[in-house]
Inverse folding.
């Protein structure tokens, strides 16, 4: 499902126009992105939570040559589905 299908479903379910659904979609994603950028966890009740996890720098190996390489520290977004969401799948 893409953005267009998602916003169409939102508009139909909420009884709003497609444009209003697009604005609500953009506001939701923008709010989630801003919260994650500032390091705050985002909890959507009944759906799940998003949080930033940090992978520390480490040593790895090039699988082709076997040489040691430095893998830099990086951040990633972790999603954890809620129990209610998982039980309804």
């Amino acid at each position: 499902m893409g953005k267009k299908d998602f916003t169409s479903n939102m508009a139909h379910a909420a009884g709003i126009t497609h444009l209003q659904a697009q604005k609500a979609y953009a506001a939701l994603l923008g709010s989630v992105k801003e919260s994650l950028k500032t390091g705050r966890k985002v909890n959507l009740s009944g759906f799940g939570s998003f949080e930033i996890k940090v992978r520390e720098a480490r040593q790895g190996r090039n699988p082709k040559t076997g040489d040691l390489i430095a893998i830099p520290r990086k951040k990633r977004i972790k999603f954890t589905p809620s129990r209610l969401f998982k039980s309804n799948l």
